[in-house]
Fold each of these.
Amino acid sequence: MIPAYLEDSLDAKDLQAFLDHIDNCDDCSEELSIQFLITEGLSTLSTGDSYDLQTAMTDKVRESHHDIEVHNRLFLLRNIGVVLVVLMTVAAFIGAYMVFLK
Ligand SMILES: [Zn+2]
């Protein structure tokens, strides 16, 4: 899962599970650091950029947490939207029924 994470190819559900695990598992977060250093270190060598890889790695994980939060918020908003549409439809039907009864 770590290589998929580094390639940004995890979907939101897997990403969340991955981040939750990384936060609580020293072995995997250590493994992530190593793989990140190798992956980013190589691309850094080829571009000639020199920057703090450990900081870059912390930033990446933080950014992923942020992405998940945004995703969850959008998901919640969408669900609220669906509920509102259903309620409005029901209200419209009830309204039409009342008018019909008169
Ligand atoms: Zn683990």
Amino acid sequence: MVDFRTKKLLSEKTIEEHKYIMQTIGFNTFSDFFSEQECEYFKERLHNAVKNYIPVGTDRSVKDQYLLHDLMVNDLSFAKTLEDARIQQVIAPLLGEAWVMYAYTSSSLPPHGNNYGSRIHVDSPRFIFNYPTNVGLLWALDDFTVENGATKLLPASHHSPNLPTEEFFEKHAKQVTCKKGTLLVFNARVWHRAGNNESDGWRHSLTMNVCRPYMKQRMDWVRFIPTSIAGQLNDQARRIIGYDTRLPSSLDEFFVADDKRLYKSNQE
Ligand SMILES: O=C(O)CCC(=O)C(=O)O
């Protein structure tokens, strides 16, 4: 099991630059976020999960066969990635200290194929100028190359609500080629797509979409992730899952001492 609590923190200068890059360009990368061994460790687990995936029968569950939604529901090691203090450093300046997880997914491209993320899209339906509500994180578990379908993002496009044409996107997008272990962080309103994998191998990554703490999450993660997994996580990881933003379901749960509140104060 990887222990993310021991990772060296990012410098203040790196975070200051990150804030400016996110505000202007809308996406940024951090190399060596995972070591080679960590990439191999997660890749093996992810590859097995993709192989064992059985769609539940709807069209969307077939489309999402390479974008798995329940990795940390079945495997503690994925949930442990939420303990990494560097993700707090990277996200808190954008969404506030109490941000939570909207979705935790993977994005795998099969050899000579693509996935549902290969259409031009944004990861948040709401456009509020100069106020990010959602941010995407993508951990590259393989080298991302032009050949294997590295992610393409349209710089600064979070400043416009409009879907660019295919031609405009392909002319102006930047394809983020990078080494395995790199973390890509992007404003969820940046128009982007996974590339096409023209290689003979898989291109694997883990992804997370995070949001402001007062927003609804995609899943009721507190109920979906078994307590046998959530119970082994630190406070940061539990907060990201949603343990500090639960709703009381009775007056008994509402009228409690501050330290027992299900919905903690200051969720701004
Ligand atoms: O896999 C990729 O390159 C892009 C993933 C993506 O589109 C997403 O996470 O929304």
